[in-house]
Protein 1
Amino acid sequence: MDGDRSASVRAWHASRSDGSRHLDAESGHSPLVASVMSRPLVTIPAHASLQHARAVMREHGIHHLLLEDQERIVAIVSDRDVDHALSPWADGPAATRRDDDTLKRPVYSCATFSMYTIRHDAPLEEAAAVLLAHAISALPVVGEDGGIAGIVTMRDMLRELLACRVVTQ
């Protein structure tokens, strides 16, 4: 895991690894982040508009996007970040020109550039601890090759929790 939020901006290549390693929950081992992360990655250019970011999220049914600049992942943005950056009246019947202009703002204006990340082979509990400790809802996952291989979200972890069977004796 890379929990260091340095002042400098890091840029990541998209990973070529499928990160498919998984430990069997029945053996008593924790699932690995790679086994529950979402992939393939959904990215958009960092200079894309907030309107485009919102449309891509809706189209793919996702809540987080990774932003690219010069073919490198440089930031993350959530649907809440986008919603907070937009006028509540934008694109609606009562919208003024100023409201609709918020749709044209670049998505990087509300993105997080100092991302917390986690390694693909980290146990799921570690990812949960990072998410809770930093009050965030998604972590880009670093693959074997050092690039971003996927993303793990609170929803991914809840899905895994629901998939677990409790065996009583």
Protein 2
Amino acid sequence: MHPLDAAILRTLLYADVFDYAMRLHELHRYLIHYEVVPLAHLETRLKTSTRLQELLIHQDDLICLKINRNHIEKRQLRLTYMATLSAQVRRYSRWLATVPFVRMVALTGAIAVENPAKANDDLDFMMIVEPGRVWLARAFSIVLVRLGRLQGVEICPNYVTASNRLQQTRCDLYIAHEIAQLVPLFDDDLYPAFWTENGWHQDWLPNSTPLSAEEPVRPYLPLKRVLEWLLGGRLGMWLERWEYRRKSHKFLQGPQPHDSSARINSDEVKGHFNDHGAAVLAAYEERLAAYGLKMTPVDEAPAQVFSQCAK
């Protein structure tokens, strides 16, 4: 199979795990390949490859596998959910940005790629926090989670990390996608550093480039400054330690699932006790095998240097 045909098919098979019909620019951005490919080359290959024309369907600016053509209708429906969800994202991300010591708030998950499964899908966020205040900031965010539930909105600050703990310890295709899809909504100059620290992900997704929100949210600064003044000294340090001891004991007591991807320490709270990524990659590998493709594009690349994470 032509290398670019394999890259296109590999990318659409990954999207297929999420019932995700892709726009052309999405296919280009998330192309799983061993080198950067210009958009014009991708368009040409889609139009001229007999093999791709046999396997793919293009309809209403969306592309997916013919065997799952219903994904196009599903994506069109999901796009109608975005107006309401986008308004909720802005509203609650502004409050998360107001949480004391939070230095970056980013949208992650399905809504970040405009593919919510339902009209009231979860709002998934990542927060980067000043070192020494991770658990205190998380406690404030949980208050917001509970207030959101009273209004029928599920807010999920799934990943809270210190600004000195930006590098991801796990580096596979699933995490590479999470990094590339992340949309910074509030940023105190940390997003470029996060991107650089995790530059390995471009070994998987070489066309990906840093994203930016169309209109970044602004925290309620007077409130944020007052809270940081009150909690910036010994009181905040005591509360941080108390909350860490209290919650880490609760999180870690009892046996953990063998596929847990949770990380609980003084600088990081990632509460994914069931590893969604492992299930996604297993389903993806099954799809690849059906088309005679391998998991990583490195296996099909000419001799060149890749980071250890992509090997």
Protein 3
Amino acid sequence: MTETSTQERRFSRSGVKATQISVFFVLLTLLLLVTPAAGPMRYGFPALAFISAFFVYRQSKPFYAGFVVWLWMLAPLVRRIVEYRAGGTASLIIASPFLACGVPILLNASSLAELFSPEGYPILFAAAGMLYGLGIGIALHNHIPVIAIELAFWIAPLFFAFFLILFRREVREIRASIERAFIWGTIAIGVYGLYQYLVLAPWDAFWIENSGLVSIGLPEAQQLRVFSTMNSPQGLAAFLVGGIFIAVLSRSWLKWLAIPLASVSLLLTQSRTSFYGFAAGFILLVFGLPAKQKLQVAIVSVLSVILVLGALEGDRKDVLFARLQTVTAPSEDGSFSIRMAGYAVLLPQMLSNPFGAGLGIDTSSANSPLEVNGEGLGNGDSGIIALLFGLGIPGTLVYVTGIGSALLTGFRRRSNVEADEMLAFKAIILASAVTVFASNVFTGSTGFLTWVALTFYYMNSKQLSAAAVYSPAKARSATSRVLDTAGGTPSLGSNVLS
């Protein structure tokens, strides 16, 4: 038996086992959610997600990457269902994707030295800046649980970026799996977003009533801003924008389903900040696409918008139009005005305390340093505020140095061969940069999206060349067949898994 055929068999067995584990995880979760066992899911789901991620990771790194993407998208929905069915709070379920992102660190702690190689510098600098904020937080605050939670939000995206660097020789397969998860995931959260707006499931209504997030709207159908399976309209919008950008460059026919569904749900989030980011990234995409593809995407997007506006009732259409009009008139945007007032108060405070307040700022406290006229401007309301207050000026400079080195490395490595494949990730990075003033793009699910795009971008040409040497063509073809058997779709670009 030849070495190539042996590798094909190994790839095939690993893919099948990873698929079996993922299917078991999904079926068991669904079974427990519809039985009286929903209550124990508060702790059982995070444990089950971690164990499943552990074994999927051991079987297949590409499958593990896709598994983590799905957890980011679906864990908030599982939490809401458990809270609705069992009562109480089930916030620990949100920890599931964070725990899954930590699996590579747990199993490859001895490989942390990779961070001191040129490939690991961006993550190393970002982690150093974050650890500075952690040290300040421990020194200044006496609420360790709050610090631990915020630390998880900051560090999980870096854990996953480390995984991508560590297995950069499999970058083609891993990237294909992530792109596949985003295309299918965009369809799923797009469909659920429409259902949520038109019908509104009781667990979503229950969550709106008890979450205290008045910006979402009323717990009634067609009276809310869509958040689908995610925690907030803004978090959903970030994933929809990323999904649209990835789908645009996909060669799969599924993109003609993903793009309109995502476009409609994005519109229904009414997240004006995300509209700015989407517009910037979409312009970058359009300029990089062939003329035929530009026309196709433009037609689908316009038809999607016409469809949703035609389906809305008169009063809801007026509300949506009024909100959209503020996109071009920021002075009429209430949330924009609040943020600007917040910046006017907080930035001078930051200059008077350049070392920062550290991680673990309790924004619910009356003495919170993020208070403006009695109302908190939380870390999630601005990536700039999150950096300057959480990490201080020293930590921010170090963290931003990591991001800057990633961008510079990616720019230097750009190549025409990989241009199409990198276009979607470049668009995501640009969208994150545009929205940083009104959204924390460095932590949690949005931070995960930002760091995935950033890491793929700066691994661009050099590591893809290494992957081509490391993985024989037939082995990549075998991986592609296994992924397709598991319900996959072709990935981006003309030369990925082709």
Protein 4
Amino acid sequence: MRKKESKENSRVQGIVTRAVGSSFNVLVDSRTVACFFRGRYRIKKEGLPASTSGERIFPVVGDRVMVTLSDEASGVIEEILPRETKLSRPEVELHRGEQVLVANVQQMIIVASVQLPLLKTRAIDRFLIAAEKGELQPIICVNKIDLASDEKYKEDLVPYPDLGYKVIFTSVPEKRGLEDFKACLKDKISVLAGHSGVGKSSLLNVIQKGLKLVTREVSTYSLKGKHVTSYVELYPLDFGGFVADTPGLRELGLWDVDKQDLAWYFPEFEDCLGKCKFNDCLHLTEPGCAVKEKLQSGKIHETRYDSYKRILETL
């Protein structure tokens, strides 16, 4: 009886802060516990035990887990608790389904850069769709504004505030917008996402002392960023909250979004949906398309519609 009580007392809840291969760091109260995963458990479905029901999953950063402690510094992940939110993409290497990058975060900070690499609003649009799909609140951070010779880049970003998205502008060398960036993260659980080289790690280094994340200059030959962060890690912030830094993504594949659903992820299309002549309208060349009519009236930005068409081609 005493052995059973001892085992139950050693079972604690924590948050996965780092996942590399089969090794996991789990934050339990204020200490980090090194863990491995038994691998035979499933995510719980309400009212049923996790080991006998639900979807098979693997722990990711942000997961709330139950851990059986071996000692103060090590343990075994016995159970993954239900996820409230997630950032996903199609599994890249094996193409077997969904790859969850991070779970249970509240918001996604979509980091883009004005130059090196060049600002691409279509990439922003893909991240906005992924945020909406994963039930994350998106915020757009446009970094490296010190590299711009003028403010013409802001013309490309006009649609986003009009649609209700928050946009902030930052420069690490000139220390511009850093307080805005910090305020976005304060007391929230956030994930930074964006292409390689846009400056995610540099931004985190400057607002959180002691992080010392590795950064690397963008190639002047290809004008593309190089991958430095190779895994996701969740960091506590001294001023409140947690933030996850993700590996730079050259292209974010959209998980579980099909052609018929895509239009619903463009807020400016919503009041048109269901009003087209054809129920299966993809808003391309079909006659009687309400979206195209709104576009021609100037109430949908051309760049956003072009982004819709290009993303549609990839689904």
